[in-house]
Specification:
The chain is an alpha+beta fold. The chain is built from three helices and five strands.
Amino acid sequence: MQLEVGPDPAEVGRARRWARSRLAGSGIGDDEPLAETLVLIISELVTNAVVHTGCPAVLRMLFAAEGGVRVEVADASDRPPQPRHAEGDDTNGRGLELVDGLADRWGWQPEGAGKSIWCEVDPVSVAPVRGQGAVSPGRVPC
C-alpha cells in the first residue's frame, strides 16, 4: 500500500488520514496503541520528507503476518537523514529522536535517485503515545 504525498506540509494530515484508514482495514483499531504510534511516526517521517526536500514523497505501509508494520517514506533527495538533538525549548529537532524512541528498528537506504527512510514497529512493544514531536527545519535540493 502506498500514497503519493505532494510537497506541501498540508499533505501530512492527508497522510495521517490515509494511514488510519489502512490500519483500520488491516484490523488495527484507531484507538489501539499500535495505531497511535504508527500515525505519529508517519506524521514525523512525512513531515521531514516534505519540509526538508520540498519535493513529493511516497508513503508505504507493509503489514507482517505476525502483526508488525513497516513504514517507508521515499523522497527525491539523496541526502542522508540528519538526526538532531533538541535542547530545552527548541521547537525543532525532535523528529528522528521520536522515531528512534518509538520504532523497534529504523534506518535509511538509497532508492533510485533519492532515499527511503523506513521503520518497523512490533505490536508487542508498543505503549500508548501522548503528544507529538517537532521536526527539523531546512531544505535540501530535490
